[in-house]
Amino acid sequence: MNSIELLVSEVKQIKDWRKPQGKRYKLHDILAITVLAIIAGADDYVAFSSYCESKKAFLIAQNLLDGKNFPSHDLFRQILQVLDKEAFAKLLAAWLQTAIAQKQFEESDFPVPNASVENKKMIHIDGKSLRASRKSNQHTRSALQIVTAYCSNHSVSVGQSIIDKKSCEKTAIPKLLKMIDLRDSLVTIDAIATTPKNAALIVEAEADYLLALKKNNKFLYLEVESFFRTFEQTALIVDFFESQDQAHGRQEKRTCQIISDLSYFPDAQKWKKLQSIICITSQRTINGKTSIEKRYYLSSLPPDAKALARAVRKHWTVENELHWSLDVSFNEDKSTVKHKQAAANLATLRRFALGLLKNAKLSKLGIKNQRLKAAWNDDFLEQLFNFFSTVNQQLIG
User: Fold this and answer.
1) Separation between Cα atoms, residue 134 and residue 140, nearest integer Å
2) Which of 162, 196, 202, 233 could form a disulfide with 209 if both were Cys (CB 3.0 to 4.6 A apart)?
3) Residue 267 Cα to chain centre, angstroms
């Protein structure tokens, strides 16, 4: 089985819902072409159709086209608008995660259950707005919103959810937490979804949490803020860590202080398995001007200031590694697709392509230039899917 056949065999698991009459193309062939096209630089329906025409010989050689007809942009649009977004996202994410886990197992460099904080699988959950998808003359809030769960250990998205028009991240995140496998991971979430309910969901999924605490949890926030203001640098601080960075004319000193005696906080009992309350103080000096910011976090992990301070910083990889790459290399922020089902499926394709390009490690080029290389060099595109060959051979065996 060659590398492209591995892709076809995977997407064959999606059941074709279309009626037999008038079907010119098999669903798994169209889905395989769509995956190949988006890796090779296509970003919309017209580009998918153009890819078929430009790569006619390659796609015929892979038995994805018969050479007589080319799927139109309308066909790609119709399929992506009806394709089950949750099943499709789960299928591609699971396939990529299984391959990554297998590669790490072979290299004996993989996280183990109950590992230390720094070796845990870290899943960061955050929302993103596709600004170009908003309707004309309407508020930016009309744009499509996607919540993504990003695993920074593997540089791969492990789940996503479209936020309903009358909803927000606060209601979409519990749904996402129930969709993905969180076992033995550390889940980080920004303050908007810091609720006792979400903390309980994470613990019940056999995972740990690190949740930002802000004024939307008014009473606990005020209790924690007052406590650290009064008792910092006293014996009640059970662990402490300090780091300093200097780059691009900016100096920054970060300190992490942790308390574990929860008897001082009446509201703490609402939070399942809560063990650590954390204060991160950032002192920045830029062009001679110094500013100080304090941020607070709740965690189900025991006090470990050094590890938890690093985990707090790791949360922002969802912005720096995922969202930034999607906008710069995949033009996600410029996507004008307004149909939610299609937008979700396109988001799945972009996240799968990004994760594959980062983990296959076939080139030192940036993601954008790797997409260009995949468009120009069919051998490079095929080699990407050799990443899955070990996993599929084991499943067949």
Assistant:
1) 6
2) 202
3) 31
| pLDDT per position as a tens digit, 244-302 | 888 777 888 999 999 999 999 998 999 999 999 999 999 988 888 899 999 999 999 99
Provide the pLDDT for residue 395.
41
Residue whose pair of structure tokens reads 């300090």 in the numeric block: 242
The structural domains of the chain, with segments of one domain joined by +, span 3-86+336-396, 207-305
Q: What is the largest CA-CA distance in the chain?
A: 78
pLDDT tens, residue by residue, 358-397: 999 999 999 999 999 999 999 999 999 999 986 554 443 3
**Ramachandran bin of 114, using left for φ above 0, alpha for ψ from -120 to 50, beta for the remaining angles:** left
Helix-strand-coil split of the chain, %, nearest 5:
50, 20, 30
d(CA 10, CA 344): 19
Query: 247 Cβ partners below 8 Å, 6+ apart?
Result: none
pTM over 0.85: yes
In whole angstroms, give the CA distance from residue 214 to residue 250: 26
SS3 235: coil
CA distance 390 to 397: 10
Is the four-CA dihedral 157, 161, 162, 166 of positive or negative sign?
negative
